[in-house]
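Subject: mismatched residue count in predicted assembly?

I count 298 residues in my input, but I want to confirm that the predicted structure covers every chain. Input:
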Amino acid sequence: MPELPEVEVLVRHLAPLVRGRGISAVEIRRPRVLGPTPAPEFIRTLEGATFTGLLRRGKYLVFSLRPPDRSAEPIMLVGHLGMTGRMYLLPRAAELPKHAAVVLELGRQHRFVYEDPRYFGRLTLDRTGLDRLGPEPLADDFTPAVLAAGLRRSAQAVKIKLLDQSLVAGVGNIYASEALFQAGVSPRLAARRLKAPQIDRLHAAIREVLTTAIAAGSTLPLDFSGQAAKTSAIVEAPAPVRGALFYYGTAGPDSPFYQERLQVYDRRGEPCVRCAAPIRRLIQAARSTFFCPRCQRA
DNA sequence: AACGCCGCCTGATCGC
DNA sequence: TGCGATCAGGCGGCGT
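Triage response: the counts match. Full output below for your records.
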């Protein structure tokens, strides 16, 4: 499940591969992923445009493009991977995946592919998703005071609150559990009940967990080929998408580097790494929360 | 206004 | 072996 670190790693790898590339044709296989943008407008806007940049905001990918008409406004293309989305470049000759949602032809050699088996993600000209986002957790303006202000008025459990993208952008279900464990805060504690020291620890834990995950991801092979992926190199991916230049897999619990790194997520019944008490699973707002009942007392 | 809940989707897994 | 049920969950929209 892609959260901030996975999107950050993807953006770092993808940015140099798309920058400067022109879009010669646009194919929409699932109009649903365009959100409110009408398909004809999407095609008309992107055909002939050139990628100029790519950055991350929360879990969103924000592509900037230069339109063919130099006098026109720059284009902003907004991507979100949802639960199962992937974005990568594929050689022109390679077969498209079953759930390719949008394909951008980049000249004769390559295609930019956005695939998503569940179609929960988006690739759209609509920017409204960005407007709802809170502060970037790794930016300087995300301070303990900012976190405290966001938590102060809410009676919701802090775990649920952490999933609210307007509180802080980019924390998802996995890293919410991890950060709360790291901070020693119970996921069930009402947001407004956190004391200043707990808020300080949670603030630090959010940043620590995300930073560590990015560092791990950026040094690991993201093409599943067993070789280190180099951002400047063209890497062959054997599977599941043969021939992908760069392959981003939704690094779920089945991915080895994930399993080693996560301390509580999907570890129900396993001993806590700190105190050996069995990790518990709990359902909050229809989502799994994992925590140590001893290290994270209510 | 904050919050709970539903719908959107397919694939993996499990019980029979 | 096959098949239906269940689960996974980010997010927008809607109702209270």
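The longest strand of chain A covers residues 50-57. Marking this ticket as 'not a bug'.
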